[in-house]
C-alpha cells in the first residue's frame, strides 16, 4: 500500500534560481521524499513523498541555508 502525500511549506530567504536548486537538492535527500517543487515567486515548496517528516524537511532547508516558516 502506498500513500503518497503532498505538503506545502513556506520558505524564506530564497532570492534566485540558485537558492531554489540548493533547497531542492537538500530536501530531495530527505527520507521518504519523492519529489520537490520550489516556486521562487511565491516562496513556496511542495514536497511529495511517503512518510517524510516535517522536522527532516525543516532541517534540510536549514542545511541549505534557508528557513521553513510554515
Ligand atoms: Cu540565490
Question: Would you write up a description of this structure?
Answer:
The protein is α+β, with helices and mostly antiparallel strands. The chain has one domain: Alpha-Beta Plaits, CATH 3.30.70. It contains two helices and four strands, in the order E-H-E-E-H-E. The chain has helices at residues 17-28, 54-64; strands at residues 5-12, 33-39, 44-49, 67-68. The mean pLDDT is 96. Copper (II) ion binds next to helix 1.
Specify the CATH architecture. Answer: 2-Layer Sandwich
Ligand inventory = copper (II) ion
- Total helices: the number is 2
Shape: globular
Gap from first CA to last CA: 29 Å
Mean pLDDT: 96
What level of helicity do the residues show? Answer: 25-40%
In brief, what are we looking at here?
By secondary structure, the protein is of the alpha+beta class. It contains two helices and four strands, in the order E-H-E-E-H-E. Copper (II) ion is lined by residues 15-16, 18-19.
Secondary structure topology:
Elements: E1 5-12, H1 17-28, E2 33-39, E3 44-49, H2 54-64, E4 67-68
Antiparallel strand pairs: 1-3, 1-4, 2-3
Helix pairs in contact: 1-2
Bound molecules: copper (II) ion.
Task: Label this structure with key terms.
single chain; 70 residues; alpha+beta; Alpha-Beta Plaits; four-stranded antiparallel sheet; 33% helix; binds copper (II) ion
Amino acid at each position: 500500500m502506498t500513500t503518497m502525500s503532498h505538503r506545502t511549506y513556506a520558505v524564506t530567504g530564497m532570492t534566485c534560481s540558485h537558492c531554489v536548486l540548493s533547497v531542492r537538492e537538500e530536501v530531495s535527500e530527505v527520507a521518504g521524499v519523492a519529489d520537490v517543487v520550489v516556486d521562487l515567486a511565491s516562496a513556496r515548496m511542495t514536497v511529495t513523498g511517503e512518510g517524510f517528516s516535517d522536522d527532516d524537511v525543516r532541517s534540510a532547508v536549514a542545511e541549505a541555508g534557508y528557513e521553513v516558516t510554515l
